[in-house]
Amino acid sequence: MDFDIIALDVDGTLINDQFELTEGNKEAVRKAHKLGAKIVLCTGRGPASTLPLLKELELEGYSINHNGAATIHSRGSEEPVLVHEFAFSVNQIELLVRYCREYGVHFDVSTAFHMYVEKLTEEEKTVYEKFFLTPELYEDVLKLEIPLVKFTLAGEVAQVDRIEKEWTESRIYGDLTMMRSGEFFIDVMHTDASKGNALKALAERWDVPPERIMAIGNYFNDLEMLAYAGLGVAMDNSPDAVKKAARVVTGSNNEDGVREALMKYVL
């Protein structure tokens, strides 16, 4: 099949559980790019932890970051440029921040290019470093007077399960959208922010119809993207609901599933 855009999720999809970008996946992505496809990384990560992967892939161009809340254009050594964002004000997450403070839940808030935390243990710092992130310490994030694109809380699976259920029932996030972006994470963003909407905007910018788009992902934050693309591919490590939503299933992220899909449908 011929695809003009190949949209790739990162964590749980393009990289393995050791946060490694394997040679097999790198080679396949580069070959697809050389055949003319635009490679778009679509991730919950911010630009700071996405750009190193683009460099490793020897690519530049557009990335969809913060689960679709920000679209970034990068070109070589030039500073990356914000193309579009779905932003909200800090007032809209005041209840979430106060909840996390009261119950000792770790959280961070992000603009398109920066991340802020109110506290940071050595263990938490180590986790951020795995994602190439260095969050900025800010004593009271509720005093930030800049547009935000994402609020994220992190915890053990049982804790995040409980909070997700509680927040779903109470709708404490108001007119924003809550999304389970991983086993250990909950994201809250603008209601229009999604990987699917951001991918649709890029496709329209390039005049590419959905049937000429391939998307590969592994989690619930990939559902809209998989549905929009002409060929939505779920990783074998995806939850069953994600597999059912995709047209096809490829190998897991620890088995070079991206390479397998590209070899079968593109190369």
Automatic annotation (TrEMBL):
One example GO MF annotation: phosphatase activity
InterPro entries: Cof (IPR000150), HAD-like_sf (IPR036412), HAD-SF_hydro_IIB (IPR006379), HAD_sf (IPR023214)
Record keywords: Hydrolase
Pfam families for the chain: Hydrolase_3
Tree of life domain: Bacteria
Name recorded for this polypeptide: Cof-type HAD-IIB family hydrolase
Cellular component, GO, one term: cytosol
Gene3D superfamilies in the record: 3.30.1240.10, HAD superfamily/HAD-like
Origin organism lineage: Bacteria, Bacillati, Bacillota, Bacilli, Bacillales
